[in-house]
Amino acid sequence: MSKYVVGVSGGIGSGKTTVTNAFAKLDVDIIDADVIARDVVAQGTEGLRAIVEKFGPDILDQGQCLNRRALRQIIFSDEQAKQWLNQLLHPLIRQETLRQTISATSSYCMLSVPLLVENGSYKNVDRVLIVDVPEASQLARSMARDDADEALIRSIMASQASRQQRLEVADDVIDNSGDESALTVQISRLHHKYLGYAAQV
Fold it and tell me: How far apart are the C-alpha atoms of 197 and 201, rounded to whole Å?
């Protein structure tokens, strides 16, 4: 088990995955709640069966997998549906996250959680790293990446912690508004810092 856990978060479109992929190349174990959230609703899982039972077979795509875009449209326009989905998925995600954290073998591991601030799980890690970009960049990147309309991305941003709220709980901040070389320098500096902290545990 890793002796030191760094929680990583940032708003939609901030580049969390780019950052955690870079740490993974430095042989840091990454526990990604987004990946786990997809795994717990994969074909054949209890999670997917419950979702189909709730929303009907139209929630599946042609390959009988979860149609994420359709589900996202539902939960961002229906607060009760969103609460139901959270009550279903959060315990499943927590259980698998804990299992992977215990199994991590790198000197420190990273727990990447989109809602690290919102659900209070930042209190359960040794250090909090926030990936930060201006809100205008979040909007532009997310619309381009997801081929989504502005209203949907703005509603997702509004449902997340504000940029200020994330920065208030941060122990470390990566500014991801620059180029790749600027990002690499920041990641290298933090990697050595975290190795030092882990060695002291």
Answer: 7
Q: Are 175 and 134 in contact (CB under 8 A)?
A: no
Backbone angles phi, psi at 67, to 5 degrees: -85, 95
**183 and 159 inside one domain:** yes
pTM for the whole structure? 0.84
User: 90 and 117, same structural domain?
Assistant: no
The model's pLDDT over 154-176, given as tens digits with 9 standing for 90+, comes to 888 888 999 999 999 999 999 99
Binding site residue list: 13-18
Pairing of β 4-9 and β 127-132: parallel
The dihedral formed by the CA atoms of 143, 146, 147 and 148, expressed in degrees to the nearest 10: -60
Give the three-state DSSP class for 129. Answer: strand
| Residues of the binding site for ATP | 13-18
